[in-house]
Amino acid sequence: MTSAGDPDLVLAIVDDFSPTAVEPRDRILRLFFSTATARDAAHGAVTSAGYLSERVDVDDEDWARRSQADLKPVTVGRITITPEPGTHAGATLVILPSTGFGTGHHATTRLCLRALQSIDLTGRSVLDVGTGSGVLALAAVMLGAGAVRGIDYDADAIRAAIENLELNPGLAQVAFHVADLSQVVLPAADVVTANLTGAVLIRLARRLVDLVRPSGTLIVSGLLEDERDAVVEAFTFTGLQPVSEQREDGWVALGLCCN
Prior knowledge:
The protein is an alpha/beta fold. It contains nine helices and 14 strands.
């Protein structure tokens, strides 16, 4: 699907339809979905919001080939993300751009990566909700975390995350599972990351807080600047307060801890 308009707002609109990849071209976005049904629903939401949108059928292998050719490595703090498998020096993650959302090229992923690097993860348990490509879970292991789990309700995203795990030998202490946060019981973790959307964060605020151990940290992103106050209010009501905040390109990431 292609769409013309404010890229950040278009991404916020289509997030509920689980895009598997995004290809920005100035103010035009090409968004890829695992099914035609998801694509058509996203197209309807975007056009209803007043943006131009066109549905296009693209071969998956062609998209993967072109993405690999065009996407460049991204460095965020101490971590570099590259689409090229192989031997790399330093703290480098291999994340294939054609498989789950999260290659480091979107501001919300970068914000979460910076937030993870701002706290000591040594030996701590981490839960990544809405893991997508698995980039945050894999980065947590690289930063010294102990047991790490990534969950996503989209089976295609989990397959992508597992594929990326296999491309990053040495990060074995991470597990990826298909799970719907609103329907499953999960053990609490020392650090929980949730790069979702503002509306989903508000709706799941109580559930996310329950997953954070006492004295733990919740890192949230995927919210736009004009959603920030409503998200903070939702989490303040549950007993968490923002202790850190970062912004980039109109997006916000919050670090929240118990009062």
